[in-house]
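4-aminobutyrate aminotransferase-like enzyme (Jiangella mangrovi), 420 aa
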Amino acid sequence: MTDALDVRRRRVLGESYRLFYRDPVHLVRGEGVWLYDASGRRYLDAYNNVPSVGHGNPRVAAAMAEQARRLNAHTRYLSDEIVDYGERLLGLFDDSLDRAVFACTGSEANDLAYRMAREFTGAAGAIVTANAYHGVTGEIAALSPSLTSELAPTARAVPAPDPRLGAQAGPRFAAGVRAAVDDLARHGLRPAMLIVDTVMSSDGIIPDPVGMLADAVRVVRDAGGLYVADEVQAGFGRLGDGLWGFDRHGLVPDVVTLGKPMGNGYPLAGVVTRSEITSAFGGRYRYFNTFGGSSVAAAVGSAVLSEIADRDLVASCREVGARLRDGLEELAARHDLIGDVRGAGLFVGVDVEAGGGPSGAAAQAVVDGLRDAGVLVSATGPASATLKIRPPLVFGTEHADLLVETLDTVLAGMTERTAD
């Protein structure tokens, strides 16, 4: 059945699509942290943060259905839902961040942030980390080194902070940003923004050291640019220290972009920024999004916020994430295939090493081995050699323990096969 569906899929979908895993999973249902395939087999989902408060969340589904039955209007009509949600969302940020603009995807949000930054600063340059991913729209894909080797002429990529440098990670990162500013100047350009995924997921998951972004932000602001915090993956409590990744670094961004977990699978994203930035942009351009900020999207977004607050999921991420990392550190002490373990809350990276260095092939073997054993993760980083563990926020200690136990078994099997 899976093979036949794959054949049909290849026949009707564009060639740019990719599937996870050597043996793709044919999903038919999800509940909480579990996914079920067509044969009824259950998989522990340790990867998907889009359904942030759990697959099939009853509160979110009820809010979606109830609002859809009543009204689903877009933002060019007056409606209570989008204003109520906007006020609630802005209440979760510093008072200086007083405007919200809604879209459907993180890609759209980052695209809009770049447009706003250019208009507000009068500059065009964009500084990104060396293996960043910020989205798939034309302009943002050209600012995403993980997608392309041909960045936009206005873009400069700088090495991500190296956590092994400890207190020097921040100054070294800032030096790279300063060099990028100088190189832009040599080409007659100024920076409009420094955009950073606050957990640097595609760079290999780099949440620490805390405070490592401050010097770089100061450099770009001194050059007239804005600091854009890409919270599309890190946001909404995942890192276990407040709702936003930039909070951990003691920063207030000029612009924040949101997406993925915002709607628990419903297409909802947004830009949160200062009124003077939206005024500069809105003075020249109209922007609205037919589906971004619809009545249903607002109802869903509000239900997600209620779930995070009422179930105390930020604290849960902190506690369960600490237990998960402790278990993974213990595996690293016993298995040569495991190198560094990094993470904050329920966003964890585990380096996989073979042959004396990072190994994308070995990491993929681990990912496929876990899939075969009923646990779903992925890989990230410049060489795709880092396991990417990013489960729904409702992951519990029992799920963390199951993940560690399963990984232990998979690693032991790989070691035995290598020895044979």
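The longest helix spans residues 397-419. The chain has a mean pLDDT of 95. ok done for today
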